[in-house]
Amino acid sequence: MRVWELCKRNLKETYRDPLGMGFLLGFPLVFMLLFGAIFSGDNTANFPVGVIDEDNTPLSQAFINEALAKVSALEVTNYDDADTALKDLKFGELKAYIVIPSGFGQQVSQNWQGEKADITLQMTYDESDVMVSEQLISIINAVTRAFARIEIPVTINANPIHIETKITYVDFIGPGIIIFGLLILIPTSARTVVRDKEKGFLSRLLTTPTRPLDFILGYSLCLVVITIAQIIIFMVAAWLLGMNIVGNAGLAFLIFFLTGLCSVGIGMVIASLSKSETQAEPLCWLISMPLAMLSGCWFSIEMMPSYLRGFAYAFPYAHSIGASRGVLIRGVGLEAISTDFLFLVGWTVVIFALGIILFRRSMRS
Amino acid sequence: MTSHRIKQTETGDDFAIQTFNLTRTFNELVAVDGVDLNIRKGELFALLGPNGAGKTTTINMLGCLLKPSKGTAHVMGYDILKQPFKIKEIIGVAPQETAISEHLNTQENMNLIGKIHGISSEELKIRSHQLLEIMGLSGRVRDQVRKFSGGMKRRLNIMMALIHNPEILFLDEPTLGLDPQARRAIWEYITQLKGEKTILLTTHYMDEADFLADRIGIMDEGKIVALGTSHALKANMQEKNTMIVSARNLTPKVIDEMRKRYAEVSISDDTMLITDSQLDFREIVDRLHSAGVIVRSAHIKEPTLEDVFLNLTGKELRE
């Protein structure tokens, strides 16, 4: 009863605050709309890419013709040797060229049969054009990974690479923006709690017979409702902007939900450690912005130096982006993303427990 | 420093609040220093003191928000250390900050606290209707409180503390920052509650304590330095009376003569302040008149709680 009353009150405080709501939904939605507008429709980028097939197997040919060539953002040209491709790259005829090394087909085949084998592609690009090269790396990486992880086909033609051919920048960026939106839950959660603390409302409630667990559940439940609403809005918005949902939307929702809970947990930890909004606010941005940068929601994690990559994977967001892209773009199931998923579950449990412990402690002080 | 602690002779059952060597420290700072208080049931007791005197810390301990570092207190017989949730059921607290939900309306704010206390919807309706009438907020039931003036927020703050009909009411600086008119309005509402409930009020406005309280505990640096009714506290000051005379022709000779006759005589422009244990109004006026002084006005200044505080602590109780 008390929990529900507190939850209701917190929800009303949230949705009746236009500034807070604008921040919670508007901020990520504006990003989504902007990216959607920039990278959708007729203006989709068309990057000329050269391919040198040193493997020359049916699989490498399928990769070029059925996967790479069908990505709308790529304009694929076959080259016999790397020198010619390099010359065209230097003259600006190409944005990049890829060398498919011998053994590629065998590596892909092994992956298809459940044996893990590293896929190596050699890509040469103009590093001065950061934005283009970054997008190209992301696209080719996504296409290659999708191609290599696909279920075992009887023949290549019988299993056309339908998924990958439709990859657009919106597909790539959509899950990232949803995760970015869920990162915004860190300051939102912290603000919800710390504002009541600062304005004495929490103290007033503490003079009533409300138990500490009632508070925690009252605030958490409200934030969980906000998380669910936010995910639904973002997923619908991303879909309306043209993001293809190939895999199980329910599984993607679950990934986003766990990610949202991690943000709520981090927010509660920050709120417990802060005495005022002015203390909590910079702390939230100091944490959430680097986490957003490291999550891979704006650019590919593969571009980062290895030590940063390790750091990025210590937090849940890079895992949720990887897992949600896997589900939404490549249509993989829980089995393929089990490591990321378990990591998310673990993080959620630990950060929520820590948030509860610290929140209880801050109420006693 | 004079201590005026009253030795109580009543039994524990007569008291709504009793504190026993109640002490709270924050690192090196002793915020509340061994306070012993006995507040009778139905009494309006004011803790008067400057900011930082330890008034809010005392209320926070009695409201089970803070644990004492030493000592304890009983609220309606319940121990603050052992039975905090029993106490929370029977108290209402209006904190110093207007701790209300800004985006909720008046009714929703009251409902929240009422429902947390387990009050039925029907009772809540009757109780909130009564409070809205008393506090003059009937016309603003559905308005979000962020649009309210400071005075209205303070009134709602008190209403939220009263919605569950508590036996004891804690009012922490109930009129802080309000204009004189809004303060008067809140004083009237509090006056209506007198006798009905035990009220512990903290304030640093001496006129507020003077106007509202049955008894006053003057607090300074964590200690109760004087305790009694406003009348009794001021009566202790009668040994030091001051007469203020506004006059012309106050020559040095006249001033010298007055200084020989009375304990303290000070001059500021055309005003003479005469202080002594006993002052005879007519005698002073006659004496000045016969010395050729033209007396324009004269009056004996009544001691205020400010004078009491100054006398006890050597400091001024700044508002």
General description of the model:
The complex is a heterodimer of chains A (365) and B (319). Chain A is α/β, with parallel strands linked by helices. Chain A folds into 2 domains: 2-38 and 171-364, no CATH class; 45-165, abc type-2 transporter like domain (abc type-2 transporter like fold, 3-Layer(aba) Sandwich). Chain A is 66% helix and 6% strand. Chain A contains 16 helices and 4 strands. Chain A has a 4-stranded mixed beta sheet, sandwiched between helices. In chain A, helix 3 (58-67) links the parallel strand 1 and strand 2. In chain A, helix 8 packs parallel to helix 12, helix 8 (169-183) packs antiparallel against helix 13 and helix 13 packs across helix 15 (316-328). Chain A is elongated, with a radius of gyration of 23 Å. Chain B has 319 residues and is an alpha/beta fold. Chain B has 2 domains: 12-235, Rossmann fold (3-Layer(aba) Sandwich); 241-302, YebC, transcriptional regulation domain (Alpha-Beta Plaits, 2-Layer Sandwich), CATH 3.30.70.980. Chain B contains 11 helices and 14 strands. Chain B has helices spanning 55-62, 84-90, 106-116, 121-135, 150-162, 180-193, 206-212, 230-235, 252-261, 281-290, 305-313; strands at residues 15-26, 29-40, 44-48, 70-75, 78-79, 91-94, 168-172, 198-203, 215-220, 223-228, 241-248, 264-268, 271-276, 294-301. In chain B, the strands form 3 sheets. In chain B, strands 6-7-8-3-9-10 form a 6-stranded mixed beta sheet, with helices on both faces. In chain B, strand 12 and strand 13 (271-276) form a beta hairpin. Chain B starts with 14 loop residues before the first strand and ends in a 6-residue tail after the last helix. Chains A and B meet through helix 1 and helix 10 of A and helix 2 and helix 3 of B.
